[in-house]
Amino acid sequence: MVATFLLAFVSFLQLLHLDSLPLSVELSPWSSSVGCSEVVILCHLWFDIFVLLCEGAGGGHAPDIIKVCGVKNVLPSSTNPTRPFTSNTIDEHLDMLMVCHHLDKDIPEDVAFAESRIRAETIAAEDILHDMGAISIIASDSQAMGRIGEVIIRTWQTAHKMKLQRGSLDASGVDNDNLRIKRYIAKYTINPAIANGFSRFVGSIEVGKVADLVLWNPSFFGAKPEMVIKGGVIAWANMGDPNASIPTPEPVMMRPMFGAFGKAGSANSIAFVAAECGIKTHYGLTKRVEAVGNVRRLTKLDMKLNDALPVITVDPETYTVTADGVTLSCPAATTVPLSRNYFLF
């Protein structure tokens, strides 16, 4: 907490990596674990906070950290393993939590801790808060809550579930759901870039930004990309046998391309450091170096299409979540798209 309050005086965006156990404190200048959700909300009176793990389960102060998603000066993010809420989510995560934290199913206190952290009610509410635009970012953590390779899949599975359960987000009655599409894309592109201070360089397709692009065949959107372009150079793409004499060889699979070899990776990447301190020369870096910026006065209102500020409450006994007085509840999905059928080979 000392580091947390000191940063208030220099107007830095503070990154909080929250813990379910309020006893843990990380005195890193960039990541701190603090005592309870009330302390996190109190901090926003002085400065802006980028909060990881303000979600339904998996991290953050149990059971009500999700309340901070309604605070203007908090930039909320949730991790992807609980996205979306399905019929297997609770069983899977209870077992995962027991193993990850070296808990014993024969010890009642360990079981009670695990059950207090994996809560069906708040996980279901997390689905709806994402769909409302109250949670601005979907990301991954490390270890148990990691699953870095599933960020995009879990994002669109959540969008699909909410489309089925809540209908179109466009109140005008048009025959599309473009608002929902743009809202969910922003959760893993421009909003993380804004929150981390490098939206000048990446996060959206604009003139002057780094040409980092992913091209998709519509049939496999969200599951398997057709081509990955890094800094304007093809780094990864679907390719068949290089010795083939026709354009339709089999099998076709993702392979490293020109941008993945030699010095291309460094030439097309950016290291975000204290650029004016001569870091590039001191360490002999071949990457382009830049400083982060525009993070000192960020608020939830800067999050594209994900700036909702509902008043959120959590019942400490039943874990029931409300937003502006409306109970947030939805059934668990029994099937999701972008799953096994897309990965048979």
TrEMBL record:
| Occurrences of domain Urease (ranges) | 55-345
Per UniProt, the keywords (alphabetical) are: Hydrolase, Nickel, Signal
So what EC number does this one have?
A: 3.5.1.5
One term of GO molecular function: urease activity
Q: Where is the active site?
A: 101
Q: Where is the signal peptide?
A: 1-18
A Pfam family it matches: Amidohydro_1
Q: Which cofactor does it need?
A: Ni cation
Query: Which biological process, per GO, is one annotated for this protein?
Result: urea catabolic process
Tell me which family the UniProt entry assigns to this protein: Belongs to the metallo-dependent hydrolases superfamily. Urease alpha subunit family.
What this protein is called in its record is: urease
Which species is listed as the source?
Vitis vinifera (Grape)
As recorded in Swiss-Prot or TrEMBL, the protein's gene is named UREA
